[in-house]
Amino acid sequence: MLTQRLLTSDRGGMIVLGIIAVALVLVPILNMTLPRESPFYVSNFTVALLGKFLCFALLALAVDLIWGYAGILSLGHGAFFALGGYAMGMYLMRQIGERGVYGHPELLDFMVVMNWESLPWYWQGFDMFWFAALMILLIPGLLALVFGWLAFRSRVTGVYFAIITQALTYALMLAFFRNEMGFGGNNGLNDFKTILGFEIATRATRAGLFVASGIALILGYLSCRYIVTSRMGRVLVSIRDAESRTRFSGYKVESYKLWVFVYSSMMAAVAGALYVPQVGIINPGEFSPLNSIEVVVWVATGGRGTLYGAIVGAFSVNYAKTFFTTWSPQTWLFVLGSLFVLVTLLLPKGLVGLFNHLKRKQREDNPPPEAPSEDAATIKSPGGAA
Amino acid sequence: MSIVKQALRAGRHALPKADPNFGAPIDTSHGPILYVEGISVSFDGFKALNDLNLYVDDGELRCIIGPNGAGKTTMMDVITGKTRPDEGSVFFGQSINLLELSEHQIARGGIGRKFQKPTIFEALTVYENLELATAANKRVWSTLTRELNGAQKDRIEEVLHTIGLITQRHQDAGALSHGQKQWLEIGMLLMQEPRVLLVDEPVAGMTGEEVEHTAQLLTSLAGKHSVIVVEHDMAFVRSIARTVTVLHQGSVLAEGSMDQVQNDPKVIEVYLGET
Amino acid sequence: MIKYGHWFLALLLSCASVPALAENDQANPDFETLVQQLPQGNLRDRMATIEALVSSDDERLLNLLTALRNNDLLADDGEPPRVARRRDGQVFDVLSGELLLDDTVETLSRVPVNNMMRRQLQTTIARLSLNNDSPQVRYRAVRQMISDGVDADIIALLRERDEIETTLLVSNAIETAFALHRLDSDNPQTRLSAVERLRGSLESEARNSLRRLAENDEVTEVREAAAEALQSIEGRVTFYRAVESTLFGLSLGSVLLLAAIGLAITFGVMGVINMAHGELIMIGAYTTWMVQQLFPGLIEWSLLIAIPSAFVVTALVGIAIERGVIRFLYGRPLETLLATFGISLILQQAVRSLFSPLNRSVTSPEWISGTLTINPVLSITYTRLYIFIFGLMVFFALLLIMKKTALGLKVRAVSQNRAMARAVGVRSSWVDALTFGLGSGIAGVAGVALSQITNVGPNLGQAYIIDSFMVVVFGGVGNLWGTLVSAMSLGILNNYLEPWTGAMLAKVIVLVLLILFIQKRPRGLFPQKGRAADG
Lengths: 386, 275, 535
Prior knowledge:
- The complex is a heterotrimer.
- The radius of gyration of chain A is 22 Å and the shape is globular.
- Chain A has helices at 2-8, 11-33, 44-69, 77-96, 109-113, 129-153, 158-177, 203-229, 231-241, 243-248, 253-279, 289-302, 308-327, 329-346, 350-365, and strands at residues 189-190, 194-195, 198-199, 281-282.
- Chain A has one domain (2-384).
- Chain A is built from 15 helices and 4 strands.
- Chain B has a single domain, classed as Rossmann fold (3-Layer(aba) Sandwich).
- In chain B, the strands form 2 sheets. In chain B, strands 6-7-8-3-9-10 form a 6-stranded mixed β-sheet, sandwiched between helices. A 4-stranded antiparallel β-sheet of chain B has the order 2-1-4-5, with helices on one face.
- In chain B, strand 4 and strand 5 (96-97) form a beta hairpin.
- The radius of gyration of chain B is 18 Å and the shape is globular.
- Chain C has 2 domains: 2-7 and 25-231, no CATH class; 243-534, ABC transporter involved in vitamin B12 uptake, BtuC (Orthogonal Bundle).
- In chain C, a hairpin with a 5-residue loop joins strand 3 (91-93) and strand 4.
- At the B-C interface, loops of B face loops of C.
């Protein structure tokens, strides 16, 4: 019953999850067992890159859940991603211990440089993984709770909400740039050594992180599917399309928005926490408003309001980014900028919508025997919410 | 089965229910279920409502007419919690102060509203629209973890019959015709099982036959529910009205049977050229 | 009251002296030959050259000698001096006085001076400055003397000037110098009268001397008088500091106003979220730079040329954006936001590719540089002052356009009820394009102003976009007066916070306060009311 609800009625999602599952098995094997010369060898670089993309896809999923379904456009979701990343970074920094440049048993290098005498209170406890893991969820979740409570309660919606979320991440960026904040200022946190006792730079650890990201993505996807196929999912869509009508139907709109916003922020935070050990650094640049807004473009490109579209979007845009930035860095911003314009003007349903449209057209040309599938039937007008 | 009988059956299901938001059942021991007293609302100096007084009895069918800008929609906004008045009080029964409640609490408490422009959820199917409106636990956690129970699902089937959309049940609501959307919205109202229905221009855009059906439905709902209809279509009003209230410039100009109201010189002056 | 008189006078003077352009009409052969001789000969020869230069009594003298003293007079190796660098780093031609864009001065060498020449220059410059036509220059000269220490020679010089000095600001400063000198007198009565005289002075030297006196003077009466005078001075210093903070806040506010006011039109009136607004500002700033590149001989006039040029350029870019993208997205604000964000990325990258990713330096004309000193604790740069005035001018011009012109009427009509406006014959698409062009053009004009106070680079716009939206939202969307009030109050708030918290934290605090404020009043300080606004 539940598998039927979550998977079989969702063809596109099944395909995407299937590909990810295969990659999770195949990529580490190809990376670790084959010799470098083999044409099927997957380089360390590619593993790290794909791992990064998996985290981005999870972040995109989080944004799609609130934007695609509840119509909440957050231009500050990168902030939750970065906070999750910082919480993980703090754990990794504490793991360095005496292996730092200054060899101080407790203080981090940048604290030694700043002549601090003891570890600030908010760094306490991060040497324990369970505590850090808790904080990865709790800190962004709390921020989302307070921020969302304030915003939704006073009915800040649409563009206003988008702009204040952008201001939120901007303010956090400025704050984290300050050395006195105690998060390494401009340089952020880096030079990690071990995670859970494993050397972070080894092939096996990297493969492990890659697999962990993939599993997180799959679980994230299924949880989102569960939400959007429940009655709550329908309430969210109705909030997106006619907020005040939903109120008059007896739903406390603020609570729904707040709940889904907090859930989404935690998903973003997990993505950030998995991202940091794979790229080896977290700095205030991750808070930059541009990052957050890029995530929105991944979702829009893939297809808003389809969940798997967000994953498709995250992978395709980031692949394009990798391609263009190595081929000709100058052109990337042109491409990204044009993507914003073209997707909103010409592809309101994104790649997934385009693909479905082509498929339907084909089917109309050769009439099909089967009944129309129900997938994506929940969402018809992603452009409808303002 | 005629649409009226279906509606009557629907009415039986809509017996008053104690709502968790209100605690006690609605006290109508003095007659009226809705007390609107001394309401004034102004926007930027423009008085949309000016010392408005309105009492609606339990089970009554009340029609409200008035020229454009008379304050009909604003009055509905006040009752349903969308607009807060500058002065006055609105009571639901003897003891429930509607001005202290928010929109969703008022809706859960038993006041349903149909908008002037049909507002249904176009991206959802007809069935899902009704499902959303169903009087069930509407808290976040319950909607996430629990589907509707059998009785509630049966009720949806019934209402689908009543509003004649049984074959369109899995169609997107956005694809319905204008009249069908009106019906769907009325169906959603029925699913809410309200004590008071506020219906804003229910027959706009309907064909003659549809208008007739609507008239039958609304009349049949009265008695079990209190129904307040705002309408411009005078023929329609005459066909259903028992008591008519005329609003003008934000306050009540006249009240009485259709004939009384039509012969009132003040009303004639205001409506000169209309009717 | 006297001090306020100065203030006003100084303001008037500063305005009057604006077009002090083109002052090299009279060629003075003596002066030019002497300048050529400056680096030649031994020490004695060179000092004689300076003496001769002084007697030539040329207008260009003060700048030249100041540069010489500061080691800022530059020449090709062994050649006569060619250019000089001002304190603010800009370079001008020694003979013509014109500002030069060519900043390849690294290859030039300094015209040498030694300590003896420097002392000679010191007194010469002091005397020259004391007799300069500008009261501001004279005032600064006196203050310089005070802070260098007043000796008998200086007193003699000042006494000479005091006879003929007409400006209160300057003669007050001279009086202060005399009083400071008298503080060293052996006669307690003289010291007491000097203390009395210094009671009103805000000069830090005066405060230091009084403090010394209050602690060490052998006569109790003098000590007490000094302490009391000190106290009254401290009170006034605090007052002027607050005034200065407010002025700086207003000036920051006017920068915010300029950045936001175009947005108040496109966002506030039309409801279009234009995330490329910052880039339009950036294009305006680049237009200023282009104007200076195209007309290197007209630096003094460049801003006046740049303002209309920037308006036209950015208005055209704005109209292109509106016709090409935004018009397809009316009624879909979130999509508009994303599309215009894309445009902002394209514009940034275009500028980066066309010019360079590096910052460009825009030259400030002579009349806009320098500082207006009102008293020792209160001074403001002319740039800030002009931007303040300019911001208000733009604001009122816009207000006039919106309230009094046919375009303004149509814009308001379309924004209130598009269908109705169209029904009465307003070509709404045309009005949309023009309104958007107007808002964009104003962003360009803001760019001209910003080019004077910040680096002109591809990222210029990004720094202002969030601030601008905040200003508009805080003030109340659709309300120009609200934008004015909100820009000014945010500027002042920011400026009062800064000394306590540092620049970055102040910004963070202001943002957080704003976010909280929007929660409380989602429609801003001065919301538009009515049924339409309820949406």
